[in-house]
Amino acid sequence: MSLEPIDPKDIIIDASGYYAKPRTQFERFLDKFKPRSAALRTTVLVTFVVCFSLFMSFWFIWRTLYLPELQQHAGYLAIESEIIHNPNFKIIHNGQEIPVDTWLNKRLGVEFISDPRKRPAIVDKPIADFFTDRIEKSLASAINADPKDVTVFFKFKPTPSIWVQTPNMHGGWIREPLKNYANYSLELILGWFLGVPILSAIIILTLVRQLNRPLKRLQNAANSYSKTGKAPYLTTNHGPLEIREVNQAFNHMIYTLEQTEKDRRIMLAGISHDLRTPLTRIRLTAEMLPDEFLRDGLIYDVEDMDAILNQFISYMRDGSDEELSATNINTLLQELVVQFSPLDIRFNPEPLPIIPARSLSLKRLIGNLINNSKRYGAEPIELSAIVDQTNHNIKICVADHGEGIPEDQIEELMQPFVRGNSARTIQGSGLGLAIVKRIVDIHQGELTLHNRAEGGFEAIISLPIPKPEKL
Question: Is 0.70 surpassed by the pTM of this model?
Answer without folding.
Answer: no
